[in-house]
Amino acid sequence: MAKIRICDVNDFFSLTGGGVRRYHLEKLRYMARRDDVEYHLLLPSDHAGIEIHGNARIHHVPAMSLFGSGYRVMANPWQLRRVLRQIRPDVVEVGSPYNTPDWVRFALRDVRSDKGLAPQIVGYWHANFPVTDVGRSLARLGRRIGQWGEKAAWWWARRTYGAFAATMAATHGLCEHLQAHGLTQVEHAPLGVDTQMFHPKNRDVALRASWGAGPDDIVLCYPNRLSTEKNYRPLLDAYRLLRETTDEKPILVVAGHGPGAVEVQALAARYPEVKYLGYLENPRDVARLLASVDVVAVLCPYETFGLSAVEAMASGAALLGSAQMSIGELLRTCRGGLALEVTTAETVAAAWLELRKPGRAALLGARGHAECVQRYSWRATFTHIVGVYERVLAGALLANGRAQPATAISRLLGAEPQAVLDSLATRDRASRIG
Fold it and tell me: Would you call 64 exposed, middle or buried from its count of C-beta atoms within 10 A (0-12, 13-18, 19+)?
């Protein structure tokens, strides 16, 4: 069977990051076990080097530190060109939107894969950057400046992602959002969760006791990056509101890294029921945390999938989330929590009190867990994504006049044409059902 040589390039990867980091590490683990794939992950790093993991390789590409944020940018296109010319990939997936698409195109100029094709570039829409990174940031200088900036960013998205063979997005709503802004080759590719690791069986009574929580206490957790785009402030404001206007003393556990850490630490110094754990690097520690709390807050209205939300549901926690974008779609699909149309201190505090009612959080958490186990898994995620790569490569073979429709993918996979067509039909039915 002919191997497909796949390469991932993403400046959004950070050692202290959340969903993007988890996506690439889970993908690495999955691809390393597949005999029909040769997988290469290019990471922005402080050094050059290669790590080998089965059929997968990590290429550390020297990159510029981004102002101590934990992120790095592969700012030198010649370094990227050297690495990609050595790999000669069939498919390159681009996960970050700024310089990366042009750098990758430059790096792949005149490169041909072992199949004699120009490498096909696909994108994964990890961040809704025209809205979050550009529009909202510039809106602080004025509403019209923000609107102009977002419009310019969508032009950039059409110029870069719009030129890719395909762009994958994690939710149906996000796919429609991208299509509405002129990106046409959009593929729905939901992310997943390790349902064995993230499971209610990991609930730790001793850990809860260390927070001062008994069996009847409802513990709320915020397990995300403490940055403005994650919209953590309404949660902290809601906590202050509850303490100042009621006799409630809810337990709030915060696990994350970012500019808001100082604010959380100040709140914890004032109220002993607020526990700040910092950034949890080990996924098993995260799994134990999520199984040991009762409610998880995911208030960002711009999430492209909300991986921490899916992990929380798989762990049996109820969600307190935004009704917008992917979190809203997730809550409507899995019915595992409360969705807020507007996230203010008042609305979050009212929802918090609702979830503290006896049995309310447990019921929603159990429902979300059952739906999550049925719908999401990393294996299904990456099997589907490899299928997208196969279809893109088959399209390239057809466009180059090097195969007939019935044999394009079979040439890639070394399988009989009818068997491939049957497999594609099965995948198409499964995709429509999903």
Answer: middle
